[in-house]
Amino acid sequence: MRKIILLCTLAVLVFACKSKSVTGTNTNNKVQVAMKGDWTISSVTYPGSQYIKVNSFDLADSQCFVGSTWKLVSNNNKGNMALTSADCTSFSSPITWFVNKEGQFVLKVLNAGEKARKIRDGYVLNVANQTETSFQLVDKGIVEGKTIDVVYQFQKVN
């Protein structure tokens, strides 16, 4: 009898302590639908940006994302992003994305022909200051042991 009680107690503790995954939550459809369309990043800002460099999405220097184009399709959570800055290496890739109930933008950068479920790594950014024509994605970076906000300002392309 004691073994059964102990086993039940352990089972309850294991399930009660299970962490919530940002990718396993429901989506925020209202925020997602408002992001549908073609966008460009008009600026990338963070404290000390004139002195330090931040590597964004493990792809390029954050300033290379200024002028990049993003196509976000909300009904299937797919899209495309392209770096087009003349001073940087050009890059284009399909992406998958969604906004979870916590207001976080979950992004996976894919290789051509690759399925999102095969990609284990992704990026989670906070959505801020959303309007019909603009929004911000805020990433956390660490510089000299301090956490900084890296803000990507998106503008709608007409």
* C-alpha Rg (nearest Å): 19 Å
Number of domains: 1
- CATH topology description: Lipocalin
The total strand number stands at 10
**Helix count, per DSSP?**
2
CATH class: Mainly Beta
Largest sheet: 8 strands, antiparallel, barrel
Shape descriptor reads globular
Low-confidence stretches: 3-23
Percentage of residues in DSSP E strands: 35-45%
**Secondary structure category:** mainly beta
CATH architecture label:
Beta Barrel
Helix share bin: 10-25%
Can you write the helix and strand succession as a string?
HHEEEEEEEEEE
**How are the strands of the biggest sheet laid out side by side?**
1-4-5-6-7-8-9-10
Arithmetic mean of pLDDT? 79
Give the terminus-to-terminus CA distance. Answer: 69 Å
Protein name: Lipocalin-like protein
Keywords: Signal
Signal peptide: 1-21
Organism: Flavobacterium glaciei
How would you explain this protein's 3D organization?
The protein is globular and about 40 Å long. The chain is mainly beta and 158 residues long. Residues 3-23 have low confidence and may be disordered. It has a single domain, classed as Lipocalin, CATH 2.40.128.280. The chain has 2 helices and 10 strands, in the order ααββββββββββ. The protein is 13% helix and 42% strand.
Write the layout of secondary structure elements.
Blueprint (H helix, E strand, L loop, with lengths): L1 H15 L12 H6 L2 E9 L9 E2 L3 E2 L7 E5 L4 E6 L7 E9 L4 E6 L13 E6 L5 E10 L2 E11 L2
Antiparallel strand pairs: 1-4, 1-10, 2-3, 4-5, 5-6, 6-7, 7-8, 8-9, 9-10
